[in-house]
Amino acid sequence: MSITNNLTVGTKGVRTTWGYHVKFLVNSACHIWGNQVWNTGDLSKNNWWVALITFGEGWHNNHHAFEYSARHGLEWWQIDICWYMMVFLESIGLATNVKLPTEGNKLKRSFASTNKFK
């Protein structure tokens, strides 16, 4: 086997392993550590350090509150690389009908809301 084939197999294995570890990190760490901004009825939390290494997926409470949203980092300071890519794809016409939560949706999910029909 040539060195090129070894590098290709090794690179794919590392990439796949990294992908699974990051996915499981989001689904475990973001249900234990972080801040819960939205009333979702579960244990999901926003975790900034997980968001940094997962390109925005660490804003997990945002995701649970607004599952349809293309943007997980809802605040200006919440870094969301996936959202930045989505904006680029939309600007060149490769993404359409990109959904975001409205202010009304945010109000319904906030802890201050008295609306019991979420």
Please provide a written account of the structure.
48% of the residues lie in helices and 0% in strands. It has helices spanning 3-29, 48-53, 60-65, 81-91, 103-109. The longest helix is centred in the first third of the chain and has 27 residues, at 3-29.
Brief summary of the model shown:
The chain is mainly α and 118 residues long. It has helices at residues 3-29, 48-53, 60-65, 81-91, 103-109.
List descriptors:
mainly alpha; 0% strand; lipid metabolism; 118 residues
Measure the end-to-end span: 58 Å
Q: In oligomeric terms, what are we looking at?
A: single chain
Q: Spans with pLDDT under 50 lasting ≥5 residues?
A: none
**How many structural domains are formed by the residues?**
1
Strand content: under 5%
Count of alpha and pi helical runs: 5
